[in-house]
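Structure first, sequence second, as always.
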């Protein structure tokens, strides 16, 4: 379906490890969401040259998004973004071209563009992004926004104007990676960013493994899609893992589910029993040892350690505005469990410090408020935040323009002005 936009609307493109979200400023949801994948007939030549197609086939002979996955058996498939960072620039350039000309059906020369970047993205990456946008697509202006700041802006949907702030802790968990990013007054506190090697793909792999070990009749070619659907439709976060096990064991007929699927090849129907993975899959954020022995810190501990590494005068603001972003944070009761675990951890530390210092009860410090913010735009929080910011009159003023690029070169993209919170 073709998308329409006026010349005054900016194109908003959020490039994630698993999916690209794209659309127009001022909209609530992206117009297209496609996998960040490209399939091409590659003969193995280095991507630096921009060539590598067999038998002189044109550079245009490639597939992106869902078409790339469909053609992955005949073509070589590549995911150009890994852990949020672009690794294959020539493939990323091809994907951007499809974003503009095929999905959004627009001329990039007519629209300002807002792109997103992960925390601690290198200045060299920003320069190369600007070079591609201005040299290849000839955009009139662009802005590279930090994903965490856009997620904070997206959380304003449930806040009064006086409560809107660019200070908070963003937990961004998508398909490939989970980041904990503290932000103070619109600036990322880089030294306190934490990385968790658990995200959507790991949850899907866990469900897949559970089904396989239990001997469910899932055809091998459908295994991944079945696991994804079970994850999205049945999984939730329990308040206590032991209580959930007890509940399921006491009345399995009530809690064990049946899910119906069709064989993608023969179209024959089959059923799959959905059991403990309903609560165990998302439990890996709070008890990661059930999935891997390499990483055993629960999410609440990682968030707490991240905030404690920030300047002391910012910590209360970071605790009371913990914002969730990304599809892997949308499990039912995720925000309640995280808030409870983090509150218990903070309270226990305060009590232990008081006992250690022998503080009198009358001198007890003010309680630290812990608030985890969940909202309806959480799944596409980064894109929605970009759509909000790109629709303000301030946007064109803070963009890097083509004239600036021609005058200064790619180095003009090494930093971006921070939006004010007044709008």
């Amino acid at each position: 379906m073709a998308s329409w936009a006026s010349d005054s609307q900016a194109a908003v493109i959020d490039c994630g490890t698993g999916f690209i979200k794209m659309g127009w400023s001022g909209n609530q949801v992206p117009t297209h969401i496609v996998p960040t994948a490209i399939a091409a007939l590659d003969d193995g030549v280095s991507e630096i040259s921009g060539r590598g197609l067999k038998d002189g086939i044109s550079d245009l002979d490639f597939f992106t998004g869902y078409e790339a996955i469909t053609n992955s058996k005949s073509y070589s498939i590549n995911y150009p973004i890994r852990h949020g960072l672009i690794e294959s620039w020539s493939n990323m350039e091809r994907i951007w071209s499809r974003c503009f000309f095929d999905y959004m059906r627009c001329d990039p020369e007519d629209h300002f563009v807002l792109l997103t970047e992960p925390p601690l993205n290198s200045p060299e990456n920003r320069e190369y992004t600007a070079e591609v946008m201005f040299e290849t697509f000839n955009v009139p202006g662009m802005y590279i926004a930090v994903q965490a700041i856009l997620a904070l802006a997206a959380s304003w949907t449930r806040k009064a104007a006086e409560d809107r702030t660019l200070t908070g802790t963003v937990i961004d968990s998508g398909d490939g990676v989970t980041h904990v990013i503290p932000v103070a007054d619109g600036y990322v506190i880089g030294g306190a960013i934490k990385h968790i090697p658990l995200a959507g793909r790991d949850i899907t792999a866990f469900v897949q493994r559970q089904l396989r070990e239990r001997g469910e009749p899932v055809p091998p070619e459908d295994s991944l899609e079945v696991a994804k659907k079970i994850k999205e439709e049945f999984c939730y976060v329990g308040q206590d893992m032991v209580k959930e096990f007890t509940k399921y064991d006491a009345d399995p007929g009530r809690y064990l589910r049946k899910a119906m699927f069709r064989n993608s090849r023969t179209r024959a129907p089959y059923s799959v029993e959905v059991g403990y993975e309903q609560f165990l899959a998302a439990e890996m954020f709070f008890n990661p040892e059930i999935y891997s022995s390499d990483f055993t810190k629960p999410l609440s501990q990682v968030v707490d350690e991240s905030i404690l590494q920030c300047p002391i005068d910012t910590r209360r603001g970071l605790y009371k505005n913990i914002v969730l972003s990304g599809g892997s944070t949308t499990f039912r009761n995720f925000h309640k469990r995280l808030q409870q675990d983090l509150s218990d951890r903070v309270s226990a530390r305060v009590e232990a410090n008081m006992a250690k210092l022998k503080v009198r009860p009358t001198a007890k410090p003010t309680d630290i408020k812990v608030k985890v913010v969940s909202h309806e735009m959480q799944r596409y929080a980064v894109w929605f935040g970009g759509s909000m910011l790109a629709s303000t009159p301030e946007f064109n003023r803070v963009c890097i323009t083509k004239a600036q690029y021609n005058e200064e070169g790619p180095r003009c993209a090494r930093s971006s002005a921070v939006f004010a919170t007044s709008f």
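Margin note: The first helix runs from residue 65 to 70.
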